[in-house]
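User: My instructor asked us to take a sequence, write out its structure as tokens, and then describe one feature of it. I'm not sure where to start. Here is the sequence I was given:
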Amino acid sequence: NLIRTIKAYCYATISFVDYQVGRILQVLRDTGQLDRTLIIFTSDHGEYLGEHGLMGKNLMYRSAYHVPFVMRLPNGISAGQRVGAMVTQNDFATMICNFAGVEAPPRRSGRDLRTLMNGSTASQAADPEWRDEVHQHHPGQALVGLLTPRWHLILHRDGEHRLFDLQNDPDERRDCFTDSNCGSIIGAMHARMSAHHEDTQSPAAAWVRNCVSATEAVKQ
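Assistant: Let's start with the prediction itself. The structure tokens for your sequence are:
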């Protein structure tokens, strides 16, 4: 069927990318540059392949936002460590600039990922000051999200809000936004989202600030 065909195309593309990355690494190895080159393997987004009845990359479910992120730099990053902290693509630019010894762009919201690299294989963040949350922005400015290790809150300008318990529902199948015991969680997360969009001068700041009323945010 159509989904099987699309998945086959996707897997073929992944195989092609894998082959080309191998070619790049071989050239770096042959020219003696491999161990003095920062290598980052990641993606700007994932793809839906039928999950939630979706294809492509829009909306804010796990298939679209959870992407691989692998780095290699001998004498700069300890091999074998796995960091469980939540990071965003905004953090990449700051880290790369600092690795290269150049000043990062003045308008940046990214954090330096090097603070998480302590040579440990522990899954938790090495930096106790690191804030484990990710703010999601959509180019259409009608959709925003906030991810924490436990919760994922999605707000829509038209009122189609969603809340997922990632600990008990990692595939985000059950929306618990209307659950009576989630009101305080929604209220606290909405406050952080509103502050973030104000601080970053986001075009969505006004509607984010007003989209969850007091009666919606605190359900009894």
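For the description part of your assignment, you could build on this observation: The mean pLDDT is 85. Try explaining in your own words what that tells you about the chain.
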